[in-house]
Amino acid sequence: QVQLVESGGGLVQAGGSLRLSCAASGSIFRFNTMGWYRQAPGKLRELVAAITSGGNANYADSVKGRFTISRDNAKNTVYLQMNSLKPEDTAVYYCHTPPYWGQGTQVTVSS
């Protein structure tokens, strides 16, 4: 069984920054692609960014140039650095590696 535990969410003003962390239990971490998703009220859950075991990353167009995903395989942790935050980034952010999901962490960006 794999557990994913997110942290780092909070309330920030527009233009500010936050760094999310996702700590994974289990030995599969280093082999798996890890992703960050988000879900805003009334909207579908969407992919924000993903990173392969080799460190290749891809991003949603809406966050390119503002967000950076990274991973530390020694710590079984994946990060999402979010800069230049906008009110439309407000959502619950989830860590994911199939078929596992974290519990989510709330990010709220005020205008």
| Helix segment tally | 0
Radius of gyration: 13 Å
Strand content: over 45%
Calculate the terminal CA-CA distance, rounded to whole Å: 40 Å
The residue ranges in which pLDDT falls below 50 over 5 or more consecutive positions are none
Q: Structural class of the secondary structure composition?
A: mainly beta
**How many β-strand runs?**
11
Helix content: under 10%
Largest sheet: 7 strands, mixed
Question: What do you see in this structure?
Answer:
The protein has 111 residues and is mainly beta. Helix content is 0%, strand content 51%. It contains no helices and eleven strands. Strands 2, 4, 5, 6, 9, 10 and 11 form a seven-stranded mixed sheet that branches. A hairpin with a 5-residue loop joins strand 5 and strand 6 (57-59). It is globular.
Protein topology:
Layout: E1 4-7, E2 10-13, E3 18-24, E4 34-39, E5 46-51, E6 57-59, E7 67-72, E8 77-82, E9 91-97, E10 100-101, E11 105-110
Parallel strand pairs: 2-11
Antiparallel strand pairs: 1-3, 3-8, 4-5, 4-9, 5-6, 7-8, 9-10, 9-11
Short description:
It is built from no helices and 11 strands. The chain has strands at residues 4-7, 10-13, 18-24, 34-39, 46-51, 57-59, 67-72, 77-82, 91-97, 100-101, 105-110. A hairpin with a 4-residue loop joins strand 7 (67-72) and strand 8.
List keywords for this structure.
seven-stranded mixed sheet; mainly beta; 11 strands; 0% helix; globular; four-stranded antiparallel sheet; 111 residues
